[in-house]
Structure formats: C-alpha cells, structure tokens
TrEMBL record:
It comes from Micromonospora cremea. Residues 448-458 have a biased composition (Basic and acidic residues). Keywords: Cell membrane, Membrane, Transmembrane, Transmembrane helix. The keyword Repressor does not apply. This is Undecaprenyl-diphosphatase. Residues 36-160 form the VTT domain.
C-alpha cells in the first residue's frame, strides 16, 4: 500500500481528480462497477487531502458530482432497457411479481435509494431498478443526492481524519461492507419469517399440517388417526390451546436464537469491536461522579423487567378497548400477550451473551441483555400505541421510542457497563425481533382485508368462479 500511495502522489493533481472521479462514477454507471473499489478510492482521496496532495473542498465536490453523474446514467439505463429485461429473461418472473416489485419500490421509494448508497453492490443495482420501475427522476434525485453526499462526504472525511491509519480504516471499512450485506440478507429473512407468521398465525399447527403430508407421518395418521382423535378429545380444548401456544413459543425461541446468531456474525466481522476501546475511553474521559450517579439512577429505573411490565399493562388496556383477540399464537402475542416475546428475547439474549469485560479490555459482550430487551420493549410500546392511532400520535410514539433506545444505550456506554459493539448488536436484536411481529401483523391484516372484500356484483357469469387472491 505504501508503494501505491507513493506512485499516486507522484501523478499530476488533475489526473488524480480525473481517475478518482471515473472510478466513483463507473461504480454505478456500468454494470461492471460491481467490481470497482469505490469506497477504497474515496478513502484514498481523503488521505491525499490529509497529506496535502489534494484540497479537501474541491475533492469533495468532484467526488459528489461524479457519483451523482454515475447514478444518473444508471437510472437512464434502467429506464431505457428495463422493458427489454422484463420481456426477455424477466418474463419468467411473471407480471404479478413485477407489479408487486413496482409497488414495493413505490412504497419504499427514496428511503431505499438513500440506504442503497451505503451498501456495496446495492448502489450499483438500485438506480437501474428505480429507472426500470418507472420511478420519477424528480423523486429519485433528491434521495440519491442525500445518499451520495453522506456516503462520499463520510468516506472522504474518514480518510482525511484517519491520516496515517489509512490502511487500518480501509480494511475495517471493507469488512463492514461485507457485514452490511449479511445484515441485509438477514433482514430479508426476518421480513419473510414475519410474513410467514402472518399467513400462519398458529405456526405449530401449520407445521404439523405440512408434516402430515410426509409419508411417515401420513402412515401414522392413517393407522392411529382414531387414537390421536380420542387423545385430543381427552385433553380438551383448553389444554390443546395451551400446548399449541407452548409449541409456538418454542418456535419463536428458535427464531430468536437464529437472529442472535446472525447478528453475532455481523458484528464480529464488521470491525466495530476494534473501536470499543476508543469509544469507551472517550466516554470515560467525560465521566464525572455527579453525572455518573444521576445516569446510574436513570438506568436503574429504565430496566428491562420494568419495561416488560409496562408493555403488559399497555397491551392489556389496548386489548380491552379494541377488538378481542383470537385463539392463536399471533393474536395472543400481538394483543394481551405482547410482553411474552420480550420474555423470550430476554432468555435468548441471556443465553447468547458471553461473560466479558467492558470497554477496558477482554472479550466484548455480544448481546447485553438490558439493551436488547429495552430496545424491543420501546419498539413494542410504539407499535402497540401507533397501530390504531392517528399519524401525529404514531410519529410521536416512534420518536419517543427512538429517543429511549438511544438514551439508555448511550447511558450504559457512558457508565462503562457495555461496549459499543455489544450495544449495537443488542439494539439490532431488539429492533429486528419487533420487526418480525410488525410484519406478521400487517400481513395478517392485509390477508383478512382481502378475504373480507365483497364479490363484484357486475362480474359476467361467463368468467366462472372468482379465484382467491394469493397473499403477497
């Protein structure tokens, strides 16, 4: 790397600007940009501004302009050749799935464009998908510009601040990009799990019914079906419901372990743990006895079990005021039993966490239980309150939840109780855990709404019976 830096510093300044701009623009402008090291280039530009080879202001403007130009070309390519893609290999996807993808992009819109800027591969493909989906450029441009400014500015300034530590920062940023890709894949898995739970609100019963189609289980059912029926009648409906709920909770426990394991991989390979000492030292340098005592008092009050009790009270009140819950797992954990997933999460976080030291040294704690339960509790409270409220109340609820999560996490960092990597992992675990039930509830509401839609009275009889609409 030292030889490369020496060679680059020997080039004319205009050539450095031009080559760096071509690399940054080409990362999205051409499909081969998937192989172009855009982040490393921006870090190198930042380092060159540190040693005086380039000027910081012009370098930032040039890189931002190059990135915006590359995204504009990619958007134009998607708009021009998107129809060919759908008519070619894309016809195997089917018009219904294309329409569903268009609707999803229209719903997420600029937020997806903004977030994609920070993820390798995604920033090359998303502008093309936006153009192919027919997103107006006036909607694409502002969100894309915001993503470009933050990504380019952050990367260049990081290279500038890193100075002599450029090699270390470059290596950690590359690892963080790979970890972000794994996290996005895991988030997709969480959403799919939530959608499956929404379509199958009794997961244990759904899995048993599918297992019943397997030859061994089908043979047992055919041979001893009457015996199973008599045993079920003997147990009674109440115990049957309790057994079904217990089996569903075991499945949720397994899902929680899977999510926690995924986040452990992400945080371990992100390079974030390398910053634990620096972040812990920064908080320790600003810690005073009076502020530490006040912060400790707040953290002692806003604890996981206190928030779980609060969630139980709020869930009971809202369930009493709103519609009654049904006798299935999703209805229970989405209404009166909203505190139950938090108890499951507390057990998962306790099992996946390992004894370790704080920021001073030793092994970092992967999932501090308090941060995970606090994050999930605040998100669950916001979800319960905002589900049947007007949008100003919903915005206020989610804003308060975000402030609570950041406040408690920052307070524990200030006191030296947790590490930065452990806090990030725990907060992600709590948020993703809530996302599962939010997606499941939204999927169930949408499926129930589709089933309750009245038949079209003017439909011609020649069309035959109406086929049921498949849920998304």
């Amino acid at each position: 790397m030292h030889d490369l830096l020496t060679m680059v510093q020997g080039l004319p300044t205009l050539w450095i600007y031009l080559v760096a701009a071509l690399i940054v623009a080409g990362e999205t402008a051409v499909i081969f940009g998937l192989l172009v090291p855009g982040e490393a280039t921006l870090l190198l530009v930042g380092f060159l501004t540190y040693n005086g080879t380039l000027r910081l202001g012009p370098a930032l403007l040039a890189m931002i302009a190059a990135a915006v130009l590359g995204d504009a070309l990619a958007f134009r390519a998607g708009r021009r050749y998107g129809s060919r893609l759908r008519a070619g290999l894309g016809h195997r996807v089917g018009p219904e799935r294309w329409a569903r993808a268009d609707a999803m992009l229209a719903r997420l819109g600029g937020r997806g464009v903004f977030a994609a800027r920070w993820v390798a591969f995604a920033r090359t493909l998303v502008p093309r998908l936006a153009g192919a989906a027919g997103m107006p450029y006036r909607r694409f441009a502002p969100w894309n510009l915001a993503g470009v400014v933050t990504w380019v500015g952050g990367s260049v300034l990081l290279g500038h601040v890193a100075g002599e530590s450029y090699d270390t920062v470059s290596r950690l940023l590359g690892r963080a990009t790979g970890a972000a890709l794994v996290l996005l894949a895991g988030l997709l898995g969480v959403v799919l799990a939530g959608r499956w739970l929404g379509r199958n609100p009794d997961p244990a019963r759904a899995l048993l019914s599918r297992a019943g189609a397997l030859p061994p289980v089908r043979w047992l059912s055919a041979r001893y079906g009457v015996l199973f029926f008599l045993v079920a009648m003997r147990i009674g409906p109440a115990w049957t419901l309790l057994l079904n709920l217990a089996a569903g909770l075991l499945l949720l426990f397994a899902a929680g372990l899977a999510i926690a394991g995924l986040l452990a991989v992400v945080v371990r390979n992100s390079g974030l743990a390398a910053l634990d000492g620096a972040i812990g030292g920064w908080f320790a340098a600003r810690r005073t006895p009076d502020a530490a005592d006040a912060t400790l008092a707040v953290v002692s009050v806003v604890r996981g079990w206190v928030l779980i009790v609060l969630v139980a009270v709020v869930a009971a009140v809202l369930a009493w005021r709103n519609r009654p819950w049904r006798a299935d797992l999703l209805s229970v954990v989405g209404t009166v039993g909203a505190f139950v997933p938090l108890l499951v999460l507390a057990v998962v976080a306790e099992l996946t966490g390992s004894p370790g030291a704080g920021p001073g040294g030793g092994e970092a704690v992967p999932f501090p239980t308090q941060n995970a339960v606090v994050a999930a509790s605040f998100c669950t409270l916001a979800w319960l309150v905002s589900r049947s409220a007007r949008w100003p109340v919903a915005v206020a609820a989610w804003t308060a939840a975000a402030a609570g999560v950041l406040g408690v996490g920052g307070a524990r960092l200030y006191l030296g109780l947790d590490t930065a990597s452990g806090t990030a992992a725990a907060v992600l675990l709590g948020v993703l855990w809530t996302v599962v039930f939010m997606v499941a509830w939204a999927t169930r509401d949408r499926a129930m709404g589709e089933r309750e839609q009245p038949e079209d009275p003017v439909r011609p009889p020649s069309q035959g019976p109406r086929r049921p609409v498949e849920p998304c």
